[in-house]
Design a protein that fits this description.
Layout lengths: L1 H13 L5 H13 L17 E2 L5 E5 L7 H4 L7 H12 L20 E5 L12 H18 L3 E5 L1 H13 L15 E4 L3 E6 L4 H4 L6 H15 L1
Parallel strand pairs: 2-3, 2-4, 4-6
Antiparallel strand pairs: 1-3, 5-6
Helix pairs in contact: 1-5, 4-8
Length: about 230
Amino acid sequence: MASKTWNQLNRRIVACESCPRLREYCRDVAREKRKAFLACDYWGRPVPNFGDPRARLLIVGLAPAAHGANRTGRMFTGDRSGEWLYRALHKAGFANQATTTDARDGLALTDCAITAVCHCAPPDNKPTPEEIANCRPWLQQSIDLLSARVLLALGQIAWRAVAVEARHRQWLVGTAPKFGHAACVELAGGRWLLGSYHPSQQNTFTGKLTEPMFDAVFCRARELLG
């Protein structure tokens, strides 16, 4: 039943046409392509959730990369951010392999699922507040469906989005907790909000996020899950 409901949600996400600017941009990128990927058939649609429909760890990213998930059709697949993420997940025992190339590479997650604040790639990786609001129902339904115990937000925008959902469900009372790498906030009902810098090249190339720092976040998630 969990898998069936999960798949139904993903089909609705893929069919979404709520943001004309984003849909046009994704189609344009899929048509024009990057030189290195001229032989690839781009996905060019909203990218569905990925992972275990019974996951206790839910990772929330910002949005698909134009030539990453918008190309491959799978969250964090086809770009440097995904290389960092799946390597860390494999080390922590949430993924069956450390590498990822495309949606048919055999990657599978256990007790972990991945969603995003926005499911369409935005120009310059910057969705508008209206586009974030349009995509909010997918985040709400993903959280409701999974009943995850640890919600890991990659980046400040994802942190704010998860905090809003936690407050809406009365899991969080008072002012919004401050985002920071490895920030951890206890929520009602045995749940936790965990934060990490996003594994974007802007953070990894500059050393703001290192591999040991990122690994430590997933070790912490393991501890919180018991």
